[in-house]
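[agent] plan:
  1. take the single chain provided in the ticket
  2. run structure prediction with default settings
  3. attach structure tokens to the ticket
  4. add a short note for the reviewer (M.T.)
[agent] executing step 1
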Amino acid sequence: MTEPRYDVIAIGNAVVDVIASCQDELIEELQLNRGGMTLIDEDRAKELYSAMPPSREVSGGSAANTLAGLSTLGLQCAFIGQVADDQLGEVFRHDMRATGIDFDTPAREGEPATGRVLIFVTPDGERTMNTFLGAGQYLPADALDEELIASGAILYLEGYLWDPEEPRRAMRRAIDVARNAGRKIAFTASESFVIDRHGDDFRSMIDDGVIDILFVNEHELATLTGLEDFDAGVEAVAPKVPVLVATRSEKGAIAVANGERAEVAAEPIDKVVDTTGAGDQFAAGFLSGHAKGESLQQCLKRGAIAAAEVISHYGPRPEVDLKALMAEKLG
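[agent] step 2 finished; step 3 output follows
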């Protein structure tokens, strides 16, 4: 097995987040799925955008957000995802490269446009996401740079992109390439609705030993296992994956690896401003420690620090020097 060129290579949705603060009444008025993520078409995206209060745009996408955190922490990263040949596509590409992430997937000509997520943030910091996947749904297997995939120590995949058929085929191919190269597969389930639609696929991958590192939150774990009791869910999945990481918002997180269990409390912060990207940055913090061979406890602590930073401001990506923050918090 050759020495990896990259620490983490991710395949995910290439989308731009459009974030606005709003009152609870607007969530009801627009009949949004409060606190969740809903897939929408382009017409609905235009309707919601016209109803949004003043907003800010920042490149997002779950796996891309995680890479942004990892790059800030000094890891070498590359991203594979599909944008259209349009203005938002250029914005996304610029933001990724400016963060130090290699992103060379060719833009797609014609319709649909680059994807976007319309995010409504209520006064309690809860985010309600409405996602138009756009060009991201059409990432073809032949767009994969297999040499690139084989050069990453960890291949990180997001469940959100498992929903459309074309990228799902691409990710299956990428898994084969990475495993043949002796690399690790990390997978984030992303959202309970994704598990509702593709749970059989995910459970098969878990049972077959395809996933090396599995990220879930407590709601996704319950959907995946059919068990409402958190500890029972952990006991059902942990023996099947080398590393299980399960987050519980303000209740912290746990990780289990080869029978060893570690737990961490949520990092205290003054105020939750926007929970967008919390799980993505937790994964970044955890993987930054895992890539360096740190203990489960230390990996979880890194995850908690990264998640706390991102929920203290608007937007899904770090706004401080995460490396310096980690040094300060970890001593």
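[agent] step 4 note for reviewer: The radius of gyration is 18 Å.
[agent] ticket updated
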